[in-house]
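Handout, section B. The chain below has 214 residues.
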Amino acid sequence: MPSRKLSSFSYYFLNKRLHPSAPAGFRASLILFIVNHNSGRNAGKFLFVREISGGYVSWGLPKEGLESPIVVDDIFTALTRNLEEELGFRGMKINELKPIFYQKALLFDFALQKYDRARSVHEATRKRPIKGKIYHLAIMEYHGPEEIPGDFDSNKSEIDAFRWTFLEEGKKLIEESSRTFNPSSAEFNADLLEKIVKMHQDLERHFTSQPSLF
């Protein structure tokens, strides 16, 4: 009999053949919702980053574009690339501090954003899809130093600052970003943040209500 290559179930689960690809004109993006699970002053807060791109300054959750047409080839690569290159979790100092991330959930097609004309024009200048974005969501726990020693390189990374925040402060930062960023996108991001926080709270209630197996 001819030999055949065996692949794990996760490959087929994540493969775009079972998970439909984004419609034409839309871009797929992965959101990282990283919640601080230390017992210190930032307990329960989530990570916000400041991004500078094309003259725009905006605060929001870490995001990473997905380039491969097959999710399994890109989803975990995008996640680690965001943590290491965009947020600065790399290098000797980070290795000594040993921050730990636990992935609690991965939700596909969590939200759909349709661009207005101004945002479409902006995306066209960057040679990106101009109709909108489809967001996947990774919910993660963070255990590590309270102050993340970000290793930012202004020549390589668009992210230049971060902070731990709660919902209301996060929404305020997004609102302030609308002064230099696209207002309709800022409004969408504020609503999206609320939706993500609610999803996280629902998951936490579900997990804590389940009987322990140990």
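Note. The chain is about 35% helix and 30% strand. Compare this with the example in section A.
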